[in-house]
């Protein structure tokens, strides 16, 4: 039986395929190794705690990536050409500006939520295709306000499935467009979403509580984006349920990507003194202690946990909880991470110990725990390491304080013991 004359075979150039997903790349980005991946695929790889290039397995000097605009234009030209030549539509997800404008028009005028859902889904595909598409959408004066209105319409009493799906898609678009956005974009979105405080924050909290993993992560990232200044951080942290829910997300049972997003948000809002006190009162330090005492925690989660703990150590109640809670196990967790994870983690750990044992010295139990857990030997190695000059000086300050609680034999054994400690 012969092949149907309307059937078309399309050969995709291998250069256009993502090495991870093997699909045609929608938003190609290049790592420092020179290998290009689709943005969504490589972001998932990096969010999983990996620090290598998937194709070459080289250790990445930096996890930053750069949009490959040349390849993106080639893929767009090829997909348009395939559509014209074969008499079929371009590959799924490639929409024209005219089609998007029509979808936006119908989204704003249509009353039927199912039809609105269909049009918003098309806009999601368009936004995910490229950075240029996202910029096009964000520059439309009414676009952000339209999304905020859709999100605010979702509340705890909403039973309409289409309305809930609309809200989740709007959150997804905001996360896609504003991720890593400019300060003025964050400020604009923050003002829009916090004008009606109850609506948007209620919807985001519901998405975090009831959504799937991807939805939870997107919602947490949107919360972080709108935590623009001290006022917005305090408004968000005071919204009942948000902080406890995010603290609950930082546990060993949680997906690492959600843990990382939650920690990043908590770090952002902890810039406010009032919020720091709230985080301490909500037992955040207990959660961080459990993370630090877990050996299998990813590098990114460990770094962010230590960074948040460093911020909370500036609070008097926070220091008391770190030093005295559960027999000093939190301090033990900090010492464990010295020289074991990364340079960043070590620098945060040294800063925490410096704050507890040198600057404030309110609780001698912290110094005793550092000595008991072989912290002095590790700090001596830090002094000789490639850490920043400031951190090396902090380590020297700590040695001066801790030597009072350290036997001469420990210090004299430095030269023989440090050969067994390999940083990171």
TrEMBL record:
UniProtKB keywords: Repeat, Transferase, Ubl conjugation pathway
E.C. number(s) listed in UniProt: 2.3.2.27
Pfam families xrefs: ARM_PUB, U-box
Molecular function terms, GO-annotated: ubiquitin protein ligase activity
Gene Ontology BP term (one): protein ubiquitination
Enzyme class: transferase
Pathway per the UniProt entry: Protein modification; protein ubiquitination
Domain annotation U-box: ranges: 11-85
Swiss-Prot/TrEMBL catalytic activity: S-ubiquitinyl-[E2 ubiquitin-conjugating enzyme]-L-cysteine + [acceptor protein]-L-lysine = [E2 ubiquitin-conjugating enzyme]-L-cysteine + N(6)-ubiquitinyl-[acceptor protein]-L-lysine
Function: Functions as an E3 ubiquitin ligase.
Protein's UniProt name: U-box domain-containing protein
Gene source species: Brassica campestris
